[in-house]
Amino acid sequence: MEFKEQLKEMQAIISEKKWLGVLATRSGVEVRTVYNTFNSQSYDEIKGARLKVYKEAIKMVDEIKSLPAQSAEVLSK
Fold first, then answer.
1. Helix (H, G, I), strand (E, B) or coil at 57
2. Were 33 and a residue from 7, 18, 29, 39 both cysteine, which residue would form a disulfide, CB within 3.0 to 4.6 Å?
């Protein structure tokens, strides 16, 4: 998958949950920096605060994808 497509997919997943503000808070940056990160053309543009956002976005997407499994586990107890 191309880098830019990967960013757009991550943005779509996080936006669907309306967590862009949460991502900014977790990363310690402004929401504008989050948007700039997702609009990067290549990995070379991901430095400093954008790198922080990118790494946190990866963690957040993993959390979102694991939510259904965690919910099923809690409900089965």
1. helix
2. 29
Is the torsion defined by CA of 26, 34, 11, 54 positive or negative? negative
For the chain, the farthest-separated pair of C-alpha atoms sits apart, in whole angstroms, at: 46
* Domain interval for residue 24: 3-75
Q: Are 37 and 56 in contact (CB under 8 A)?
A: no
pTM of this prediction?
0.84
CB atoms within 10 A of CB 63: 12
- One-letter amino acid for residue 14 of the chain: I
Q: Is 18 left (phi over 0), alpha (psi -120 to 50) or beta?
A: left
Q: How many domains does the chain have?
A: 1
